[in-house]
Design a protein that fits this description.
By secondary structure, this protein is an all-alpha fold. Helices cover 65% and strands 2% of the residues. One of its GO terms (cellular component) is plasma membrane.
C-alpha cells in the first residue's frame, strides 16, 4: 500500500515539475521582441543611474530622472552581456551614429560589462530582502550539513519547507507580469514562506512517504549543480534539461529505498552545501545564483543570463568541499560512533541474568 501511494505521489510531483519548468508558449518573434525591449531599457537604466557615474559620483538612483534621461539620450554604446564574450551594441537611436559597431568583432567582457551583468541579478548593494533570504539559506544549509541525518522530523520538515518554497517561487516567477507584482518582495517572501511552512507540516507527519523526497531534493540540487559548470549551462536544450533534472531527482529518491543511510547522508550534505553557498552568494555577488535562475525562470519578461568567471568556479568548488566535509562528519558521528539509522534509535538490549 505504501509503495502504491508513493508511486502516485511521485508521479504527481513529477507532473508538477514538468508543468512548472516548461516554458510559457507564445509567438517566438513576439517573445524575442519583448525581451529585447526589456534588455534595452535595462541597459539604458544602468548607464544613466549607476552609482559612481556622471557628475555626481555618489548620487542615488532616481526613476523620474532616469526616464527623462533615457528618453532624451543620444546613441551610446554599452556592453551586451548576453554571452561570455561581450559585443558592443547601440542601445539608443535618437541620432545617427557614423561609426556603428561591428558584431563580428567581439571584445573581452570588461569590468563595466560584468558590473552591469551583476546589477541585473542583484541590484546595487544588499537589500533587506536579499539579506533575509541569504541568512535563511545559510542557516538552513548549516543545519543540513551538521544535523541533517541526526534529527529525523526536523530534517523532513525543512525538506518540505524547501520543496514547497522552491516550487512556489518557480510558479510566481514564471507567471510574473511586466513590470512585476505590487509589493513584489513582500509577495515573494510571504507566499513562499507561507506555503513552505505548510509543506514542512505535511512532510513532518507523513514521513512514510516524504522520507524519499530527501533523496529527491538532493538529486534536484545535484542536477542543477552539474548543469551550472558551463556558460548558459551544460545542456542547452530546455526539454533535455528538464528531463535530466527530473531523472536525477527520481533516481536519487528511489535510491533511498535501496541505500537509505548512505543516500540520506549524501543528500542532506549536498543540500546543505548548496543552500549555504547559495545564501552566501546573495551577500558576495558572484553570479552563482544565475545558474539556478536560468534553469527555472522561463518568464519571457526576465532577461536571465549565466556567465562564469573564477569567482563562480570558486563557489562551485566550495559546494564540493563542503559536501565532502559534511559527509565525513555525519558518517563518522552517526554511523561509526552512534550506529544510528535515519529516524530509528537502536538501543542495545540489557544482558539477561542466567
Amino acid at each position: 500500500m505504501v509503495s502504491a501511494t508513493f508511486n502516485i505521489k511521485l508521479f504527481l510531483v513529477t507532473l508538477c515539475l514538468v508543468l512548472a519548468l516548461y516554458p510559457q508558449q507564445g509567438n517566438a518573434k513576439a517573445i524575442a521582441q519583448k525581451r529585447q525591449a526589456v534588455a534595452t531599457i535595462q541597459n539604458n537604466w544602468v548607464t544613466v543611474c549607476a552609482p559612481g557615474t556622471g557628475d555626481k559620483p555618489n548620487q542615488k538612483r532616481d526613476d523620474s530622472v532616469a526616464t527623462l534621461n533615457i528618453q532624451n539620450s543620444k546613441p551610446t554604446r554599452t556592453i551586451d552581456c548576453a554571452s561570455s564574450t561581450a559585443t558592443a551594441t547601440v542601445t539608443a537611436t535618437a541620432a545617427p551614429d557614423n561609426n556603428p559597431p561591428s558584431n563580428n568583432k567581439p571584445s573581452a567582457c570588461n569590468a563595466q560589462c560584468w558590473s552591469n551583468y551583476l546589477w541585473h541579478t542583484y541590484g546595487w548593494g544588499i537589500t533587506p530582502q536579499l539579506g533575509l533570504v541569504g541568512i535563511v539559506c545559510i542557516l538552513t544549509g548549516l543545519y543540513f550539513m551538521a544535523f541533517g541525518f541526526r534529527c529525523f522530523r526536523a530534517t523532513l520538515a525543512l525538506v518540505g519547507f524547501v520543496i514547497f518554497a522552491c516550487m512556489t517561487w518557480i510558479g510566481l516567477t514564471n507567471n510574473e507580469p511586466y513590470p512585476g507584482y505590487p509589493n513584489q518582495a513582500i509577495v515573494y517572501i510571504c507566499v513562499c514562506v507561507g506555503l513552505g511552512i505548510l509543506g514542512a507540516i505535511i512532510f513532518m507527519f507523513f514521513y512514510c512517504i516524504t522520507l524519499y523526497f530527501v533523496g529527491a531534493l538532493g538529486g534536484f540540487y545535484l542536477a542543477i549543480f552539474i548543469l551550472s559548470w558551463k556558460d548558459n549551462l551544460v545542456i542547452t536544450n530546455n526539454v533535455a534539461r528538464i528531463c535530466f533534472i527530473i531523472g536525477v531527482a527520481i533516481i536519487a529518491g528511489v535510491s533511498v529505498f535501496l541505500l537509505e543511510r548512505y543516500i540520506i547522508i549524501f543528500a542532506t550534505s549536498f543540500i546543505g552545501a548548496y543552500l549555504f553557498v547559495f545564501g552566501l552568494d546573495l551577500f558576495v555577488h558572484t553570479g552563482f545564483i544565475n545558474g539556478f535562475r536560468i534553469i527555472l525562470d522561463h518568464n519571457w519578461w526576465h532577461d536571465v543570463e549565466y556567465m562564469i568567471d573564477v569567482h563562480v568556479y570558486l563557489m562551485l568548488g566550495a559546494v564540493i568541499l563542503l559536501t565532502l566535509i559534511s559527509c565525513g562528519w555525519q558518517y563518522y558521528w552517526n554511523v561509526m560512533r552512534l550506529h544510528r539509522f535515519f529516524g530509528i534509535n537502536v538501543v542495545e538490549a540489557a544482558p539477561t541474568k542466567a
